[in-house]
Amino acid sequence: MTLLGWAVAAFVVAIIAAVFGFGGIARGAASIGRLLFGLFIVVALVLLVLQVLG
Q: How far is the C-alpha of 15 from the C-alpha of 38, rounded, in Å?
């Protein structure tokens, strides 16, 4: 899998985490979802930059 593929995969996981976290399922799940959302967005951006530069 290329770096761009990893970036897309990280973005999809971030969206899924956001849906579960921001959907109001549980307060604990929301905080975990926000944390994962931020983490995976950062990972996706780093991988995207690496793909462009490489």
A: 10
